[in-house]
Amino acid sequence: MTRRAARFLTRLYPPRWRVRYGEEFQTFLESRRVRPVDVLTTIGSALSERAAGSLTTLLYACLAIIAPGGAWHMTTSGAPLARIIETHRAFWLSWAMIEAGSLAALAAGAVAVAPVLSRILRDRRRDVVRKLVWPVAAGLLLVLILVPCAILPGWESPEARAAPALVVVGVFVDQAALFLTYVIAHSKLSRSLGRVKRSVLAMASWIVVASIIAGAWGSTIHSSPRGGDLHLGWAGALLWLVAMTYRVVVLRRTLAE
Amino acid sequence: MTRSTQRVARREAKDDPELGRYSDPPLLVLASLADGPKHGHAMIDDIEQMSGARLGPGTLYGAIARLEREKLIEPLPEEDRRHPYRITPAGSRLLRAKLTTLQQFARAGLRRLEAL
């Protein structure tokens, strides 16, 4: 293989990998006849190395985009907010952005996340799977908290359609709690706390955020059944922004390593 | 295979919870390094001769990076811009346990075929 092609393939790998294997790998490529299929597997391997440190982050990033899209759709479908979106340009634009983001994330999921998931399952990456379990558990716990709100008197049929959105709200809350975890992990506090204590603190943060959201959700539903949808929409959008900011920061940090 | 060998293999497999994850390229690399240190070129040729499988450069170095991360192989001092690698004691134990399991599986399968 030519030096130029070998250098190109080597540069596809992340910097930390190149520091260790770059020169050796490039020499190896230059000294061998490389088949087209080898080029493809090398590209796959480079992408895999790039994603290795951020598999969970990538998956959550997609989830963080898809979930608010789904929540907005479910909470605005047939509700007054849908009409507001149609009449106000700013609402329409924000809705279109979230909808486009959701579609883009779904497309990215089909192209990029599916192979990553298949790799996780094939390699039995239990470390990643363990991390993925937490928000699911958090979402289920949140549903357990919110279901009593949903079954209280005053929960009419239109709002009942938004019930599945509660599961998605669980993901929002988890994202917000992760943001708090990030702040905790990067504050001076984390230096004086052990790993276990930090986890406990993160879970405590989660419970506080969940309680606030659950309280807000319940009060808006009961004081103004229709207004609850609007509040949920804005809460979702706000949490989406927080979650995405957090994810972008983490992703940049991970890729910069 | 004696019962004691089987017990040792089972114990080693139990001691290393990640044992089940290793197969294909990482296992081939470990097997290639079992008879002495080799660099990338020698490993690819050896693996092809030993198993008939020709690993691509990306696959080979993906396996090397993973095995080194897990401390199952280690690099030796650089020679002519390339590192030879050697298997570590942990890598030898893992390879032995994995191959013992495979041997046990192969024998059981062959016994069943003979019974046909």
Q: How would you characterize the overall build of this protein?
A:
The complex is a heterodimer of chains A (257) and B (116). Chain A is mostly helical and 257 residues long. Chain A folds into two domains: 3-44, no CATH class; 54-256, no CATH class. Chain A is 87% helix and 0% strand. The longest helix of chain A has 35 residues, at 89-123. Chain A is elongated and about 65 Å long. By secondary structure, chain B is mainly α. Chain B has five helices and two strands; from the N terminus they run ααααββα. Chain B has helices at 3-15, 24-33, 40-51, 57-69, 89-115, and strands at 73-75, 85-87. In chain B, strands 1-2 form a two-stranded antiparallel ribbon. The two termini of chain B are 22 Å apart. Residues 12-23 of chain B have low confidence and may be disordered. The interface between A and B is medium-sized, with 25 and 16 residues.
Keywords, please?
heterodimer; A: 257 residues; mainly alpha; 2 domains; elongated; B: 116 residues; Arc Repressor Mutant, subunit A; two-stranded antiparallel ribbon; 5% strand
Which of globular, elongated, flat, extended, rod-shaped describes the shape of chain B?
elongated
Average pLDDT figure of chain A: 62
Order of helices and strands of chain B: HHHHEEH
* Secondary structure tally: strands of chain A: 0
What is the string of helix and strand elements of chain A? Answer: HHHHHHHHHHHH
Mean of all residue-level pLDDT scores of chain B: 81
Note the main sheet of chain A: none
Strand percentage of chain B lies at: 5-15%
- What's the end-to-end separation of chain B, in Å? 22 Å
Low-confidence stretches of chain A: 155-161, 218-228
Radius of gyration of chain B: 16 Å
CATH architecture descriptor name of chain B: Orthogonal Bundle
Span from first to last CA of chain A?
29 Å
CATH class of chain B: Mainly Alpha
What number of structural domains do the residues of chain B give? 1
Count interface residues per chain for the largest interface.
A-B, 25 and 16 residues
* Morphology call of chain A: elongated
The major β-sheet of chain B equals:
2 strands, antiparallel
Task: Quote the CATH topology of chain B.
Answer: Arc Repressor Mutant, subunit A
Secondary structure category of chain A: mainly alpha
Helix content of chain B: 55-70%
